[in-house]
Design brief:
This protein is an alpha+beta fold. It is built from 12 helices and 28 strands.
């Protein structure tokens, strides 16, 4: 009798109280019944999902070239545990990430297990020492959305008082509807027409490089656990190059498991959400050359006879604005150009601000496609400067070499060679002062590096005589320190590779001796 009544409800949209349901609620109610029953779904207090998977490096912008067909660099998720406290709106992810190639620091090889929590409007991270530190409001929003990218969680959200459902439509084999939560978060739920099971959820978020990005998490392989259906696989894609951002294979789903208290500690909740603003500062390296520091990435300003040129817009739009504003105080000459060393997302995070500020982008021809893509994307969610003030991209492209020169300054731009971290990278050389300005060719404080041979190969290729290395990462280094540190980083990398072989788990991307 109950099954007959529920079927009647799902088909007619008439509730148990005799009230007619809105079309969107009819879909949500049918989906709840398909997952295990509305009452059962609402009664669940906790979920735990355990598994493993992969992450795309730098949202797909960290591969060797900017080509959309270039091989992707992957980060392996060797153990993943998401615990969701549905009753209290909290979630924790504990996850170990292992870089799938030899790169930079020992911490990239599972030495650190992330412990990231969201408690409603408050996000915080728990360090290895057990100390909790508050994260930004933007991080809190991201974690809330990711918490709801689960069939049970999103259906419960849709059923919750205060949630608004709208815009029911049909797209092929699914029906979709928009969900606005009581706290203002917006998502879209897609439900299979054939069986009423959730197919995917999506949401739009702001990205430094790409403006508005649509994330879509799809669900695969439903299996029964604890009286409800849950997926055995998740895939998250973004609407840029149809990139598969993350995959997760589920080892075990658990329902109504005991969980520890994930409430934000009192000192974390009372602390202001961090909103760090770059404090850029400039130091003179040589006449007409300034080194701008104050963030995780540095920039350099060159003064020509009638204009200024910036090397590297940096890792974020906030940094680009701070560096550009500071550069304009160094000289009455206008800042007109920005040199982009390579396409990696941590080196193009400020590109959109540079374009909005009217700067001409100078880069290697191989980076042109991805830069044009970044420049053309809209930004409406927490709109960035280019979204608020659209400007056309002005771009100058080089091949192996380009010289910027007038009566006051000469800067030689050269393509970096023998470097499979960034095939179309460029460095800047100031012959008068024998300065090499570079990004990712050499970083002093990395534990290891597997493309160090490319540094000297680049100098040899263009006959550059260097006295000082001016890096985007770290401080200025005398050239005499480059060779010994490259050797040390190589030895560390080789030891990592040897350990992997001995353990029967070879590490991909082991280096050749520089």
């Amino acid at each position: 009798m109950r099954k007959t009544l529920l079927l009647f409800i799902a088909c007619t949209g008439v509730s148990l109280s005799g009230q007619a349901q809105a079309p969107e609620m009819k879909i949500v109610t049918a989906s709840a019944e398909a997952l295990g029953g509305r009452e059962r779904i609402l009664a669940i207090r906790t979920l735990r999902i355990e598994g493993y998977g992969q992450l795309a490096s730098q949202m797909g912008g960290g591969n060797i070239t900017s080509s959309p067909d270039a091989p992707q660099k992957w980060i392996n998720i060797t153990d993943h545990e998401r615990t969701i406290d549905l009753a209290n709106g909290r979630s924790r992810v504990r996850q170990r990430n292992v870089t799938g190639f030899v790169f930079a620091r020992l911490a990239n090889y599972g030495r650190v297990r992330a412990n990231q929590v969201v408690d409603g409007a408050v996000a915080y991270n728990v360090g290895a020492d057990g100390k909790a530190v508050r994260a930004s409001n933007a991080v809190a929003k991201t974690r809330r959305l990711e918490m709801r990218a689960n069939p049970i969680a999103i259906v419960r959200t849709a059923l919750a008082p205060g949630t608004k459902l709208s815009n029911l439509r049909t797209a092929g084999d699914v029906q979709t509807l928009d969900i606005t939560t009581q706290d203002g978060d917006q998502m879209t739920l897609a439900v299979e027409r054939a069986n009423n099971l959730p197919a995917w959820v999506s949401w739009v978020a702001r990205d430094e490089n790409l403006g508005d990005v649509t994330f879509r998490t799809s669900f695969f392989g439903y299996d029964r656990t604890g009286g409800v259906l849950l997926p055995m696989g998740y895939t998250t894609k973004i609407d840029w190059r149809d990139l598969k951002l993350q995959t997760l294979m589920v080892d075990r789903n658990s329902v109504d498991v005991a969980v520890d208290d994930m409430a934000a500690p009192a000192d974390v909740r009372s602390a202001p959400a961090p909103n760090p603003q770059p404090a850029a500062k400039a130091a003179v390296l040589a006449p007409g050359v300034w080194f701008i520091t104050g963030g995780s990435h540095n920039s350099v300003v060159f003064e020509f006879a009638d204009h200024l040129t910036l090397f590297e817009a940096g890792q974020s739009n906030a940094w680009a604005k701070a560096a550009i504003d500071l550069a304009r105080t160094l000289s009455p000459k206008p800042l007109t150009e920005v040199i982009v060393s390579h396409h990696h997302f941590d080196h193009t995070g400020g590109l959109r601000t540079a374009i909005a500020e009217g700067l001409t982008v100078i880069t290697h021809r191989g980076n042109a496609g991805i830069i044009r893509e970044m420049a053309e994307r809209k930004s409406t969610v927490d709109a960035d400067q280019l979204g608020r003030n659209p400007k056309p991209l002005k771009i100058t492209l080089m091949d192996d070499r380009m010289t910027l020169k007038d009566s006051a300054m000469e800067v030689q731009l050269v393509r970096v060679v023998q470097n499979n971290h960034m095939v179309h990278a460029i460095a800047a050389y100031v012959p008068r002062d024998r300065l090499l300005v570079q990004a990712d060719m050499f970083v002093l404080d990395w534990d290891f590096q597997w493309w160090g041979a490319g540094y000297n190969a680049t100098l040899k290729e263009y006959d550059l005589q260097v006295d000082r290395d001016v890096p985007v990462h770290g401080g200025v280094v005398p050239f005499s320190e480059i060779g010994p540190n490259n050797e040390k980083q190589f030895r560390n990398a080789q030891a990592l590779c040897d350990d992997g072989f001995k353990a029967g788990f070879p590490v991909p991307g082991c280096p050749a001796k520089p």
